[in-house]
């Protein structure tokens, strides 16, 4: 596979917030991230969080009142997605903390992916899913990737490789 930029993984996403404090509370207490140290040379309000092998950098908006209002939950809108072990446990937790969400189910050849969509305090959409149920199948290769949170296994599916 080509890797012209020598990329290794997703490092972090940055999210502009109306209130860094409210967003930290959400990402820590709802999604399970942990605050980590930011470089002292950063001279603006923000917070860095880490878990699940990725970072979230929260940046205080310079104009919190001018930030877009939260739109209705739309699974076809921009979002970040996290895989989970139990959709039922996530749904129960969202109900406990009174977060509005939308459920969706995707089917591919008898395999199902369950999804829950909801917003963070600033309207960033979050998806929680069991997406590792569906293999990653490149469109131009004769390989099938089976990815979990721990690793990716590549299976050769073309007979030309199975001789």
Automatic annotation (TrEMBL):
Residues 9-131 form the VOC domain. It holds the Pfam family Glyoxalase. This is VOC domain-containing protein. SUPFAM superfamilies: Glyoxalase/Bleomycin resistance protein/Dihydroxybiphenyl dioxygenase (SSF54593). It comes from the Eukaryota. It comes from Glycine max.
């Amino acid at each position: 596979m080509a890797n012209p930029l020598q990329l290794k993984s997703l490092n972090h996403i940055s999210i502009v917030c109306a209130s860094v404090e409210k967003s930290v509370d959400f990402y820590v207490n709802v999604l399970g991230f942990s605050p980590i140290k930011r470089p002292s040379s950063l001279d603006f309000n923000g917070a860095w969080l880490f878990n699940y092998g990725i970072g979230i950098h929260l940046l205080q908006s310079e104009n919190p009142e001018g930030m877009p209002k939260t739109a209705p939950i739309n699974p076809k809108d921009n979002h970040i997605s996290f895989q989970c072990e139990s959709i039922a446990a996530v749904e129960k937790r969202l109900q406990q903390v009174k977060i509005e969400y939308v459920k969706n189910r995707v089917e591919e050849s008898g395999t199902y992916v369950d999804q829950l969509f909801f917003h963070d305090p600033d309207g960033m959409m979050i998806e929680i899913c069991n997406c590792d149920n569906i293999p990653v199948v490149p469109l131009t290769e004769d390989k099938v990737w089976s990815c979990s949170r721990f690793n990716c296994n590549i299976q050769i599916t073309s007979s030309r490789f199975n001789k």
